[in-house]
Amino acid sequence: PRFPVDQGRSLCVLADSREMCSAPEVISCLRAEHGLRVQVCALGTSDYMVSNRLAVDRLLQSELQSPGNRSKLSQRLQRLQGSFERICVIVETDRVRPGETSRFFQRTQYYDGVLSALVQAGIRILFSSCQQETAALLKDLALLEHRKGAAIQVPTEPEGHKRDILNFYLSIPNLSYGAALNLCHSFGSVAAVAN
Amino acid sequence: PVTAGSIVVPYGHVIGNEKWRGSEVAQRLQGKVRLIFEDGLGLVDFHLSNRTCILLISEADTVAGDEFKRRLVRFRNASSLRGIVIVEKTQISDQYYLGVQKLVVLELGMVLLPVTNQGEASQLIIQLVSFCVGEQSRNRGANPFLRKRRAQLAEPAVLQAVQQIPGVGKTKALLLLQQFGSIHRLCNASIDELEEVVGRTVAQQIYNF
After folding, report:
1. Chain B residues touching residue A170 (CB < 8 angstroms)
2. Pairing of strands B46-47, B13-17
3. N or C: which end of chain B has fewer CB within 10 A?
4. Is the ipTM above a cut-off of 0.90?
5. What are the recorded GO MF terms, alphabetically (chain B) (predicted)?
């Protein structure tokens, strides 16, 4: 990377455990090709967290095309806005399955409406044509956030007692996984936070 | 001239740069939105509202070289308007897309939306206009992705949180909250106070936590 990251510690990205199944290539690409530290955990709200304030959701183009997804999508993004300062969605072109000829993407008015709504809501939109490109975009975002001093700096795998405390913080509404991790590491105890 | 300043757009209208008169985009927009042409819009192709404008990058622009990049940077430096960049992403210009995206979205912090031809561009502009109008009329409830400020009930959440303390289940969580009322007071409770509510072992566990 062009911007040197602290000695011996690479950039860190948190990935939701569901992404292990739905986008294994993104995760392995981040690790192998870009040398990022990827911590898989139960983020729940977002697919990825690339910094303390930026959540990234990976959406397939077909998901934005179908009106049936509308309420699910809006609930999900509203929840994200409750917990994060910045939100970015990566719109990934659907994979063409073997035996299928390249599907012709018919751009609908509905799809344009969804994009317009995202723009108006101040959600950043990136387009990707495959999982490798998505991984590269996540790396770019992590690098950018690192440059702005918002990178995830704390250890991401608390153990034992810290683990219990983390779970306690995670049960607080509108507190993101990253914010909970930071509370865990900046305060000695729950009592210190409460006071 | 490098004008990129604001311009007053009458409600429900779109102001287009004179150079687009007679183009396919303009023809398709006409009838769907009230389109007015004006000279001297400089860098901007279409103004959707007083705050939002569109810069259109054609396939030819992307292939021709870096001139369009200089135009975008000049716009970004000269204007505080929200600029939406619409780029023609075709089989030919596809290879440049990632680079353009990196510049526009990551470096300039603007919005970038790809279309495959001018027809798609006009369809997208029509949708963008309807959201801009909604924004001006303060009809923001129409946007499904804007956060609704709905206060969440705190009590179930507090109950959930207390159950994360080792040794505390639903029953003990309820008893503790009845006694102490808040997480703050629970945190500052002494072992003896805790023992009055739960047994000695659990009281110790909570205190240690």
Report:
1. 164
2. antiparallel
3. N
4. no
5. chromatin binding
**Angstrom distance (rounded) from CA A46 to CA A26:** 15
Closest-CA residue in chain A for B188?
A191
E runs forming strands in chain A: 12-16, 37-41, 48-49, 54-60, 86-92, 124-128
Whose structure tokens read 């977002």?
A46
Q: Counting Cβ atoms within 10 Å, is residue A151 exposed (0-12), middle (13-18) or buried (19+)?
A: buried
How many CA atoms does the CB half-sphere of B111 hold within 13 Å?
Answer: 23
Any chain A CB within 8 A of the CB of B148?
Answer: yes
- DSSP character for B195? H
Angle A112-A134-A58 (CA atoms, 0-180°, nearest 5)?
55
Q: Please enumerate in sequence order all residues whose Cβ is within 8 A of that of B64, keeping only pairs 6 or more positions apart, or say none.
A: none
Q: For chain B, how many residues are written?
A: 209
How does strand B82-88 pair with strand B52-57?
parallel
pLDDT above 60 (res A182): yes
Residue A4 vs residue A164, higher pLDDT: A164
User: Structural domains in chain B?
Assistant: 13-136 (3.40.50.10130), 154-208 (1.10.150.20)
On average, the pLDDT of chain B sits at 83
The pTM for the full model equals: 0.81
Question: Residue A100 to residues A21, A34, A59, B90: CA-CA distances in angstroms?
Answer: 22, 31, 21, 22
Closest alpha carbon to B20 in B1, B52, B47, B2:
B47
**Interatomic CA distance for residues A146 and A5, integer angstroms:** 8
Compute the residue count for chain A. 195
